[in-house]
Each structure stands twice: as C-alpha cells, then as structure tokens.
Design brief:
It is built from 10 helices and 4 strands, in the order H-H-H-E-E-H-H-E-E-H-H-H-H-H. With 240 residues, it is mainly alpha-helical. Helix 3 crosses helix 5, helix 4 (55-62) packs across helix 5 and helix 8 packs across helix 9 (178-188).
C-alpha cells in the first residue's frame, strides 16, 4: 500500500539510542531509505519496482558513492536500526508495524468500530443492563396556558394589549392618549414598560409638560418685544 505521507515522531528519532550512536552520514542515509520505503507499493520495505535495492542501486537513488553506502549500511545493520526478511530485503520494523496497525483499524472502522468494544457492550446490554447503558427518553415539558385577569400583567414578548392600555388610561381619565401611547411603544418596543400604571402616569405628565411648553412658546411669539431707544433710526424716521 503506497502512502503519500508517513508518521514521523521527532522525539522517537532523537531518543533512539542505536540511531544516535551513529554519525551524521549514517543517519542521513537512513532518512533517505525511509523515504524510499514509503515511496514504493510495499510500504516499509526497501523495494523499488518490485525489486530489492542493492547497495549500488541505493547509491544511485541517494546520489552517494557505492563504497560509502556499503560502509554506512554495515553501520546501520550492526546498530540494529533496520532488519531483513527471509529474502534479505531491508525493512523498517516501525514502518511495517505502523502499516499493520493502520490496516487493522481501517478494517475495524468498516465494521462499525472496535469489534471487542462492540461485543462487550452487547454482552452488558440485556435484561440486567445497568442504568448507564439504558436509553434515556426525555419527557416533554408540560405546557399550561394561563390568562391573567390583572390589567397590569405584562407579557415579555408581546408587551401590553391595546385593551389593557385603554383601561389604564381610562382609570386616570385620559382615554384620548391611549392610542398614542400604544403606537409609540409598539414601534419602540415594550422592554422598558414594566409597570403599565406607572408608565401611564409618566406619559400623561410628560404630555402635559410638552403642551405647556408649546403654549408658552406661542404666547411669546404673538407679542414681539418693542425696539429699544438705542436702536439707530434713519433721519426723519425717529419717533417723537
């Protein structure tokens, strides 16, 4: 199975005592060999085109000297960095082990997960299954609809109805302002109206204050101030 990538654990590479006992050249050759092992169809084995690589072939693949490659291979094999199969093909024990583990997990996933875990769950489920494995069905919450008879009861989503507003303004004798109050809060939102009676009185008070300001402003505009004697007049136009 040819993979476009390989698992590389820097901590394992640095912590491998056998590999760290070798020089830079041997470790570099082993890194190239791992790349070749993951490039072929038989992952983990030093095979290219279905043929095991000889030291001369490996030298050509890595751009090295055949004599030096032979010497470095002896160092790697003496340190136990790689192994050989019955046919003498070099392979990486870690790579072969990782590929086998990956294939096993892939097969288990196609069957729906870990077969041992699924079997254990099936055995535990049954007439004597513990409560932790039994399905839990949530009961729907009971919903009750109550209608309040109080005029000042408030609904968070819809606010107050027009009938409630009219009743509140009728109590203080200002029914003519009910529609204006209702339209204003319908457009702005009822979030700040927590007490309808209190807001009714406040709305009426502010309405009366605005009316008083308009009345005072009209009176001032209807009686303009007379010009003072300090204002210069043209010759012949000064009042006597």
């Amino acid at each position: 199975m040819k993979l476009p990538w390989c698992k590389f654990y820097p901590r394992d590479w640095i912590g491998d005592a056998e590999l760290r006992s070798l020089g830079y050249a041997a470790r570099g050759l082993w890194a190239d060999m791992l790349c070749l092992m993951y490039s072929g169809k038989r992952t983990g084995y030093l095979v290219v085109g279905g043929k095991a690589l000889s030291p001369e072939d490996l030298a050509r693949q890595t751009g090295g000297d055949p004599g030096e490659v032979k010497r470095l291979l002896k160092q790697l094999e003496s340190a136990g960095v790689f192994s050989r199969d019955s046919q003498g093909i070099i392979y990486s024990r870690r790579a072969v082990r990782d590929i086998a583990e990956s294939a096993r997990k892939s097969a288990a996933g196609k069957l729906g997960g870990n077969p041992l875990l699924k079997q254990a769950v099936k055995q535990r489920r049954g007439s004597s299954a513990p409560d932790s494995l039994k399905p839990i069905f949530q009961k729907p919450e009971a919903t009750t609809t109550t209608k309040s008879c109080r005029t000042n009861s408030r609904t968070e989503a819809a606010g107050f109805s027009l009938a409630q507003v009219k009743a509140a303004f009728a109590e203080v004798g200002r029914s003519e302002l009910a529609n204006e109050f209702f339209d204003y809060n319908e457009a702005r939102g009822w979030e700040k109206v927590r007490d309808l009676s209190a807001m009714t009185r406040l709305f009426i008070r502010r309405h009366e204050e605005r009316q008083a300001k308009r009345t005072n402003g009209t009176r001032k505009r209807s009686h303009p101030a007379k010009p003072s004697g300090n204002i210069p007049y043209a010759d012949g136009c000064q009042p006597r």
